[in-house]
Amino acid sequence: MTIAWEKSRLARRLKPPELSQILRSDYTKVIMLGIIVFAFDFGVWFGLRVAFRAEYPLLAVASGSMIPTLNVGDMILVRGVVNADEINQGEIIVFRKPGTTVSFHLPFTADTSELIVHRAIKKTYYDGTCYFQTKGDNNPIADVWYGPDTLGGMLSEKLLIGRVVSWVPWVGHIPLFIRTPTGMFVIVLLFLLILFIEYIPIPEKKTS
């Protein structure tokens, strides 16, 4: 009986015209648009993960170690590999930095200090495991890696994320900016402005 009374009271509070007015309000539209954009973002991200078989199918280049091939702010497309034998000498690969664990990140915002984009200049096998020697195109010498899953300065296939199959210039500056404190502040500020904009009173012009 109490439940029925609550439903009746709620129905009296939100009459059809009032409910329709709420749904048409700018405030509600902004929230619904935000939910749609957020859902679309995740949908695209996980769709790309499935299509390219990669944990991180899109990444922004954050350093100049691969100049002139890749520049800071380029967005790279990464395809996962089932077998390390698929990687040929000279290909650009993405791998975890030895000794780090890649934590959860929102789509397109992975911490680039945990992931490295360099060229595989040599491949060798030891005890059934494939190891890669890597080098940045803009670096004078090859990388020397130490820590878990390394051997003689080379890194194990266990650290491999995938190969770079394509890239788009400049687009990566957006996620790079969002990851900065300034970027986060701007995003939060814009969101708050959108939420409260309709509550800011607009002064009426005085009539003579």
Helix content: 25-40%
CATH structural architecture of the domain at 52-175: Ribbon
End-to-end Cα distance, whole Å, is 59 Å
CATH superfamily of the domain at 52-175: Umud Fragment, subunit A
Written as H for each helix and E for each strand, in order along the chain, the element string is: HHHEEEEEEEEHH
Number of helices: 5
Find the CATH topology of the domain at 52-175. Answer: Umud Fragment, subunit A
Taking strands numbered 1, 2, ... along the chain, how are they ordered across the largest sheet? Answer: 1-2-8-3-4-5-7-6
Mean pLDDT over the full residue set: 79
Tertiary shape: elongated
Overall number of strands: 8
CATH class of the domain at 52-175: Mainly Beta
Low-confidence stretches: none
Strand content: 15-25%
SSE class: alpha+beta
Radius of gyration: 25 Å
- How can the largest sheet be summarized? 8 strands, antiparallel
Walk me through this protein's architecture.
- The protein has 208 residues and is of the alpha+beta class.
- It has a domain at 52-175: Umud Fragment, subunit A, CATH 2.10.109.
- Helices cover 34% and strands 22% of the residues.
- It contains five helices and eight strands, in the order αααββββββββαα.
- The protein has helices spanning 2-13, 16-24, 26-52, 173-178, 181-196; strands spanning 58-60, 75-79, 92-96, 115-126, 129-135, 150-151, 154-156, 160-168.
- An eight-stranded antiparallel beta sheet has the order 1-2-8-3-4-5-7-6.
- Strand 6 (150-151) and strand 7 (154-156) form a beta hairpin.
- The N and C termini lie far apart (59 Å).
- The mean pLDDT is 79.
